[in-house]
Design a protein that fits this description.
homotetramer, about 290 residues, mainly alpha, Four Helix Bundle (Hemerythrin (Met), subunit A), Helix Hairpins, Ion_trans_dom (chains A, B, C, D), transmembrane (chains A, B, C, D), ion transport (chains A, B, C, D)
């Protein structure tokens, strides 16, 4: 997966400032690189908070100009970061077209676009674009070490879950069409897409209650739909649990094999003995004392 | 299960156009058969989209005549496909009575019926029948190879899930009756079937909010019902997860056995040795070196 | 568990009609006993349906007298069955005090009580008692063979699930009290019990929407409560799945041991060989050919 | 974890009343200590009930003075208990700063504070503080022996569940911002925090229905959000189930190892043989016959 691949240094300069910044941005084990990561995380969270608070009317009324300044401050900071990344990596285009590269770009673009598209009539569009800055928070996940196992289990079960979703959508089409015929537009089921929306909301046990069956037959079909949804909600859970348990078992087995490998036979070199074995499995020579775990 | 059985060629003509079409329709590995499958999937999705969009009032107002033409186009296409399937399979009746045969028929029947049953007063009935065309999308699942494991796990756990559903229905009857007595018709619990509908909606954690307890005792019973539902929602998940993990373990064990088979004994031909074995299990002759995995 | 214990014949008469009826009621393998079971199941379902339909106003208006007759018919039938069971079992009192004995009694009592407590003012109470007749359907589960594994897994995990429920209730008390203070009676959180009802409805992801937070702080606490509930909904599922997988593995292992045991060594009598073994594990004597599975 | 650590006796007096009370409060196996625990549990439940009932208006009107007396009675009882605990443990400060110490203090503080902060205008604040007394019920969990396995599995999976929660919050920010732009304040999505509240309520399948999408695009995004939530609801369940199954397998393996230990070699004393072993693993001496399990 390109998602987790490590970028390589721009070969133009193995030494100099590029080298230094590459180490700061992409390595984890030095003090400056850790400070850089932390600074970035704080900046991302703060910029998302600004967008969120700016949307609350009475806060916007009082702080609008401050938020405007902060907005441009964050945009310039992230622009500098984006430029730096482009300069130091070996293949800038590859970074620019990767998932993170696109998110990094989308996080700065809306503020610049708001300069090009001024005027009251385009405010809504600009607001829509600015919202995309929220995607910055997605960067956060990059900094969390532990997400690997969970993500890999999700990734391995992606085809099964997609299949499951297509089953859910098929049921939603059939149930939505049925309810559209049974209840009709007068009870809120105004067309098949709206009925499908209702079917998804119902089957996934959300149940907003904005559209609700009112005929006896409609309620009967709804109960059946709910029980079907209740029965197959097990499917993604089952898939994911099985995959995760599998992954954890493999990780454990690998750790177990590594533990065995520690004591190779000094005569024939055979490794992989039982932790309690005292003689080599293969040639009979005495093994070294096992280490305390 | 007849659901996944492979149909056999009509013996009347082992060669000629029947043979050719049978290969196109039922085999997967040639280019024309793959094109046929893809064309069918596109046609099914497009026809379902037409039915869905036709139900939206303002789209219907503008495009009604186009949809009418598309409707008949799809119907004729699917009719030709249905006829072809009947002609080339060995036992046409068996296909016609199979699940897919019935769905294929239901997918074309409503459009023809709309000719025989004209008039404004029957419009609703015809619409109901036309909805059945949506079942076409169910055909899609036939074309997805990977659904096997998921379906088999569901199939193996069908009895346990049915048992669980009957338990849910029993609780719904008891809880619905109780709430009908406690809350009464004035609070929306107008009769036992309606109360049962409410109990199913509540226990499955959908919670529309169209019927809601208003007395203290009613709220207490509701809380108890919710906690019961919350506790037993684990049951179908547990059943399905256990079955799926079982199936995956068996598949893995089978794969492991196949891997063992790679090293047969050169003397007695016995296969299925332990990966670490150095001598034949059966005759004692030395085995070839195991390959690196 | 007394729930699944088999009753013993009344010793007073090893032969005669008691013996015959005991076999019909409590055994499963003869034709008359199977017919008796089936008749009873049909009668239970039919009597429940009568109670349910009788609660629907417009059906009651048209069919009240028929339902009255059916009601008494079922009551007399079930009374006869109850008397029979009391007569043929060895210890009638034990049956009468068992779970099924009490349910059997509750299923016939309300109709008789409606004779003793006539008058318009007691109608509601009688209706409440009549509802208990619905418990008849609980008898159904007795007739389903397969429920064993599921019930045993539930039974083994009962303490863990009770503990989990007490955790849920504790969180409901704390969250309910908090919301009562934050939102107050004017927003529907009229007292702590009502707030607890809301907390249970919310945490279990039912979400009726009859009581809803309206302040920003209230919505924040609600989001936190939902995320907590979302995280611990895993607990009962995990408990039950682990117990069920455990039970299935044990059943499989037991079956595997039985399969191995089939071939004992003719010399030393040792059992439990690998299915593929050709010589005795213990004394080296040749084993008999393994049977085809 | 300090949560489950056992406190040590105050060394100042190994004998005398401190010793006696330490045994009563912290040990489990004597009759007085069991009575003490039971009395405390009853007192906690009763005090919580009083707070709850006092919040119901018509009950408060009739019983206010009785509740006032009970309130002070419980407060003095718990104050005495708190003082006792401080006196008998070896390091009182450590207890006072532990989770349970803080809860014990919070459970008595509000009643005293209501003396210092009298007056109608502060009633609401005091009520808020009094609510904290409900935390007493959290003490209950301390007295339940069996919670260990469940809590440890939760504890082991805490990092994975936190990671999952941060993913849920990220999705809530993105989806909430999107819906704020699509639906806007006129449809109830008045600002991004409110939209995020809606996104959490929807994704966790609670679905109050107080805020609901009304445009077609909004409903489409909602359906997508629901399906995403429906797919990843598996994650915490999978994590917890895998951890719990892991814990149970380890407990079983430990029990199995203990079972093996039963047959030690009479010559070299080595324990831990395979159940089927006939000779000592270490010195070759014949082992005693294995006992029937």
């Amino acid at each position: 997966m390109r998602l987790f691949s490590t970028p390589q240094l721009n070969p133009a300069s193995e030494t100099g400032w590029r080298r230094r910044w590459f180490d700061i941005i992409y390595r984890r084990d030095t003090r400056p690189s850790r400070n850089f990561d932390l600074l970035l995380v704080y900046a991302i969270v703060a910029s998302v908070l600004v967008v969120m608070l700016d949307s609350v009317q009475h806060i916007h009324a009082a702080w609008a100009s401050w938020f405007y300044v902060a907005e441009w401050g964050f945009t310039l900071l992230f622009s500098a970061e984006y430029a730096l990344r482009l300069l130091v990596v070996r293949r800038p285009l590859r970074y620019a077209l990767s998932i993170w590269g696109i998110i990094d770009l989308l996080a700065i673009l809306p503020t610049y676009l708001s300069l090009l598209l001024p005027g009251a009539q385009t405010l809504l569009v600009v607001r829509a674009l600015r919202i995309l800055r929220v995607f910055r928070i997605l960067k956060l996940t990059r900094y969390i070490e532990e997400s690997g196992i969970l993500m890999q289990a999700l990734w391995r079960s992606r085809r099964k879950i997609l299949l499951f979703l297509s089953l859910v959508i098929t049921i939603a089409i059939v149930a939505g069409s049925l309810m559209y015929v049974i209840e009709g537009p007068s009870h809120g089921f105004s067309n098949i897409p709206a009925s499908m929306y209702w079917a998804v909301v119902t089957m996934a046990t959300v149940g907003f209650g904005d559209i609700v069956p009112q005929t006896t037959l409609g309620r009967f079909v709804t109960s059946a739909l709910i029980l079907i949804g209740y029965s197959i909600i097990a499917v993604p859970t089952g898939i994911y649990t099985a995959e995760l348990a599998n992954g954890m078992r493999q990780a454990e087995a690998a750790a177990g094999r590594r533990r065995r490998d520690d004591r190779g036979c000094v005569v024939c070199g055979y490794e992989g003995h039982e932790p309690a074995a005292r003689y080599c499995n293969r040639c009979g020579h005495e093994l070294p004392e096992p280490l305390e775990p």
